[in-house]
Amino acid sequence: MMHSLPVIQPDTPSLLGRKPAWLKVRAPGGPNYMRLKGRLREWNLHSVCEEAHCPNIGECWEDATATFMILGDVCTRNCGYCAVTHGKPVWEDREEPERIGRAVADLGLEYVVITSVNRDDLADGGAAHWAATVRAARRHAPRCRVEVLIPDFQGRAASLEAVIAAGPDILNHNTETVPRLYKVARHGGRYERTLALFRHARSVAPALPRKSGIILGLGETRDELVATMRDLREVDVAILTLGQYLRPSARHLPVEKYYHPDEFAELAVIGRALGFRHVESGPLVRSSYHAKRQSEEIRA
User: Fold this and answer.
1) What is the DSSP letter of 229?
2) Numbers of helices and strands, H then E, in the chain
3) Per-residue pLDDT tens digits for 202-241
4) Is there a domain that residue 119 lies in?
5) Structural domain for 147, as ranges
6) In total, how many domains does the chain have?
């Protein structure tokens, strides 16, 4: 049985420019945050925590947890919600996988998330570099669990298989929004390609847990959101993250709605009713937020 969402009064245009109180976070700056920031600079590594302006950067970095972003910091796509720089990448660093592996070991991480920009300019979408990075992390820190938050590789099955063959513990690919909004929000992305990625992953590695995330507030309806969640369950996605879209700048898509925390809680109930093994749902939730805890729950 589906649960109806609480009735929340629609946001007026004058209020949408101001973030609600529940979206305010403390500015980062603790000792572990400063240490990790310094190490990333020292090793010439990128984190999506910084590039995507993640609101949880202070909390996660204080917990010595970070999401490494490989293949540079320039994306070949220009999604309407994303803060990562768009352009023509000229970056190539064959030593990056080894540096990440050594960084994971040096920081004593027990869980690491690896993601990347889209590299549609590369024949394999960067899959070989992806596989090398996962293997380096395994080699330097064999006890560390590795989650990969991958792009769609433009639907290349061989690229997906190369990453899976490297042995990640969780395969994550973000759906981001509902099908109707793909043309507006996900330039270069295809909703059916996202579902096909999970279907193929299931066929080649059925035991590998699959994970996806959706950002709310781009103009989706409740019915569209629940239908998208249902589609993800049909391709056996086990972990779902739901978070509020926060506009990075005036040139990005506007926030159409700020969801109340009670609505996020209700969506988590709906997600569990649909069969997700774990639903991380809240205004500040992002793909790698509490990723280690999610992994432990799936293992248990």
Assistant:
1) H
2) 12, 10
3) 999 999 999 999 999 999 999 999 999 999 999 999 999 9
4) yes
5) 20-299
6) 1
Contact 243, 202 (CB under 8 A): no
pTM, 2 dp: 0.85
Domain containing 149 — which CATH number? 3.20.20.70
**Residues 156 and 127: beta-carbon distance below 8 Å:** yes
CA angle 75, 78, 81 (to 5 degrees): 110
When pLDDT is averaged across residues 45-63 and rounded to a whole number, the result is: 57
Would you state the pLDDT for residue 50?
Answer: 53
pLDDT for the residue 152? 97
In a domain, 14, yes or no: no
pLDDT for 1: 40
pLDDT tier, 297 (very low <50, low <70, confident <90, very high otherwise)? confident
In a domain, 12, yes or no: no
Helix (H) or strand (E) holding 70: strand 67-70
The DSSP letter of residue 176 is B
Task: Please state at what angle helix 222-234 crosses helix 261-274, rounded to 10 degrees.
Answer: 30
156 contacts 125 by C-beta, under 8 angstroms: yes
CA distance 171 to 163: 9
**250 assigned to some structural domain:** yes
Higher pLDDT, 219 or 48: 219
Query: Token pair for residue 63?
Result: 């917990």
Question: Residue 29: pLDDT above 90?
Answer: no
Which DSSP string corresponds to 81-129?
A: T--SEES------TTHHHHHHHHHHHTT-SEEEEEE---TTSTTTTHHH
CA quadruple 136, 138, 144, 147: dihedral positive or negative? Answer: positive
Question: What pLDDT shows up at residue 55?
Answer: 60
